[in-house]
Amino acid sequence: MKTTHNHRFVTGALSFVLLSSPLTAAAQQPSQAPIRGFAADAVTQRAELENRLRAVPDTGRLREYQRVMSEVPHHAGSPGSKAVAEWALAKFKEFGLDAQIERFDALLPYPASRQLELLGPEKYLAKLKEPAIAEDKDSGDPGQLPTFNAYSADGDVTADLVYVNYGIPDDYDQLAKLGIDVKGKIVIARYGQSWRGIKVKVAAEHGAVGTIIYSDPKEDGYYVGDVYPRGALRNENGVQRGSVMDMPLYPGDPQTPGWGSTPGARRLERSQATTLMKIPVLPISYGDALPLLRNLGGPVVPNENWKGALPITYHIGPGPAKVHLGVKFDWQVRPVYDVIARITGATYPDEWVIHGNHHDAWVAGAADPISGAIALLETARSFGELLKSGWRPQRTMMFALWDSEEFGLIGSTEWMETHQDELATKAVTYLNSDGNNRGTLSAAGSHTLETFVREVARDTQDPKTGKNALEAIVVKDLEKAKTADDSAKAKAKRFAIGALGSGSDYSSFIDHGTIASLNVAHGGEVETGSYHSIYDSYDFFRRFNDTTYRYGAAQSHAMSVAEARLLDAPVLPWSFTDAANTYTQYTNELDTLARQKLGDHQVDLFVVRVALDTLSAAGKMFDQALDRATGMGSQWLAAQAKALQAVNRDIYLSERELGDPNGLPRRPWYRHTIYAPGFYTGYGVKTMPGIREALEQKNREEAQTQAKVVADAIMRMAKRAQRAAEELDRLTKQGKTT
To answer: CATH number of the domain that 702 lies in?
Structure first.
């Protein structure tokens, strides 16, 4: 669901940076550097195993997987999607894994009719079509879904047009200052700055009767670089499809919020599904947008931020451009096919490490999602090769290729909701990937896993530089440095991962299940305009994206290393100190926000700070206890496997303690008290969202109530961490006396 410059991971800071100089930790080799959760005498053996995993991913196989999976359109609910799922199932079985398909039924509307015409002053009938091109063999494939936005309302409206820039709340504030009202109007917004569903929701809240969304060449076209097929940017006919489901309320099947949409499950009436849009919407190309925008009058846009790159003066309207917009959908419940493979753990079979990507696409989907799905397949094959040599993981490894991610994270959400009782006690972590491309390794997720991710990056090779992934980040920053001061700052940056909002399949696991989660990918070097278009194809990918498939192999290896460590760690490598430090930063931000919105001392975050002090102290206890336990050596840790099960249970269940069963105000599906997508940001994260969004709305009473909710959650996590530390110390002391 998320790729390209116009649709990146909107989750906060995603890049790796160093805790200290890149030539300290980065220069260590896996055979020398400590691995959190393992004894020092196990490091050499771990390095040997990880080198075996590194040797498996094959660029030729990655290329062939992608060619097969992108050969035909395979949108959710289609025969193509089922065929891809069955092909992947056969691959998992070929690799020696136990695998099956789990079916769900979900509301998946397909467009039945679409019309957009400019009635005056100029007359123009929009093409609403991306033409096939000779340079791309798949661009003319039959069975393509036409350009549309899923979960738009049916509608047939005629009204004056108003240009609303990106269509986010700040833009409507600007319109209000100009005295422009969109009530009863059709609005046209450009892609960017926020998720597309927010543009439609905000337009409807302001009384608009329809929405048009287009890709402006300033962000996604000739202003950036040569357009396809000559270059990689979106051409004048390219259109970004996509869902406009109101996912900040809840993702998944709109008719089964909170429970799995298994065949025959109870379903809400469509009129009861609150995530469906209330007004019609269509996405269009900038070729179709130009006549509409050219015929707008009214004031010239107020500043440079409102100007695109089309060869016109950008006016706001309303009118004199008058537009007729009509869309109608075939609202059917259609099948969704999740592919699930597993390797059962030898010691802790009921502790699950899960790695998911999705297999459905809007059309061919070579980049989104297949570039990530093929890396997952090679990761699964890597573990399959280890299985053949007699290796067995201590915990259970599960691989998932989800269906219907593009419509609204449906396959992953319905699977999680169906299995939520099991996942509540058994899920150790959820690791997500989506599209993968040329560039450095990045991650976002639960901050208890920050040190863990740093060590994985330290021991993962960057394809471009040959250095480890941490050092490659510094190299990239140094290349951009313009002064000696810039270079010094690049070398001195501390390591951090970003926070997760929404927009990919991790959402249900972290936001609803409060399972410790990570989203991991390579990227950042490529600007392309194929996103969610018919041109996201095998031919396009091989010309402009990961042309050698080396980054697919690197992604597979990074995920293999991460998963192998989580599967086998005698003590799970959480860092409650990292979490406490990050949550303290969020609290400092909220203090500043409270002063801005409500004045000094209007919201008391003392209870949150007390909880954070408790978590910090527990984190230090845990770090010390972990060092003492791993210092006892691998043989001792192996002998304590049964006793350590209770310790590890407290460790991985610590993330559950950050959940509130009542959920966030006005959206109870979202239970995590630290991370959630914002109500008006779509994918973009709001940290400590209950407090933060109350402050943004200047609701002091709600902010104070939510501060107590957050403090209680952090205190619960602290108690888990302390209990794990005390039990580790007990076992260590007992071991020293025997």
So the answer is: 1.20.930.40
Give per-residue pLDDT as tens, 408-434: 999 999 999 999 999 999 999 999 999
Look at residues 344, 452, 360 and name the one whose alpha carbon lies nearest to residue 398.
344
How does residue 485 score in pLDDT terms, banded at 50, 70 and 90?
Answer: confident
Helix ranges restricted to H, 481-547: 484-492, 507, 538-544
Same domain, 594 and 645: yes
Q: Which residues contact 497 (CB under 8 A, 6 or more apart)?
A: 13, 14, 16, 443, 444, 445, 447, 449, 450, 453, 518
Half-sphere CA count of 89, side-chain side, radius 13 A: 17
Q: With H, G, I as helix, E, B as strand and everything else as coil, classify residue 726.
A: helix
- Cβ burial of 712 (10 Å; 0-12, 13-18, 19+) is middle
Of the residues 315, 331, 347, which one is the last residue of a structural domain?
331
Residue 398 CA to residue 415 CA, distance in Å, equals 13
User: β-pairing, 149-150 with 242-243?
Assistant: parallel
Distance CA 705, CA 718 (A): 20
Residue 689 in 3-state DSSP? Answer: helix
Classify strands 98-107 and 333-343 as parallel, antiparallel or unpaired: antiparallel
Give me 400's structure tokens.
């998932």
Give the largest Cα separation in the chain, rounded: 91
- Mean pLDDT of all residues in 694-715: 97
CB-based burial label for 565 (10 Å; 0-12, 13-18, 19+): buried
Q: Are residues 112 and 329 in contact, defined by beta-carbon separation less than 8 angstroms?
A: yes
Tell me which of 14-23, 58-67, 119-128, 676-685 is least confident.
14-23
Query: Does residue 8 fall inside a structural domain?
Result: no
What pLDDT sits at residue 600? 73
For residue 567, pLDDT over 70 is answered with: yes
Please, is 68 exposed, middle or buried when counting C-beta atoms within 10 Å of its C-beta (0-12, 13-18, 19+)? Answer: middle
The H-assigned helical ranges of 510-653 are 538-544, 550-568, 576-598, 606-630, 634-639, 641-653
**Where are the alpha helices (H) located in 366-436, listed in sequence order?**
371-388, 405-408, 410-418, 420-426
Which residue bears the tokens 């919407």?
281
Query: Can you give the length of the chain in residues?
Result: 738
DSSP helix/strand/coil, 491: helix
| Mean of pLDDT values over 471-481 | 86
User: What are residue 398's phi and psi, to 5 degrees?
Assistant: -125, 135
124 and 270 together in one domain: yes
Say if residues 159 and 315 touch (Cβ distance below 8 Å). Answer: no
Indicate the pTM of the whole model.
Answer: 0.95
Residues 6+ apart with CB under 8 A from 716: 657, 658
Are 501 and 616 in a shared domain?
Answer: no
Give the C-alpha separation, 625 to 730, whole Å.
9
Secondary structure element (H or E) that encloses residue 705, with its range: helix 700-736
Domain of 633, in residue numbers: 576-736
CA–CA separation, 569 vs 425, rounded Å? 18
For residue 414, give the DSSP letter. Answer: H
Q: What pLDDT is attached to residue 738?
A: 65
Q: Could you give the CA distance from residue 422 to residue 303 in angstroms, rounded to a whole number?
A: 53
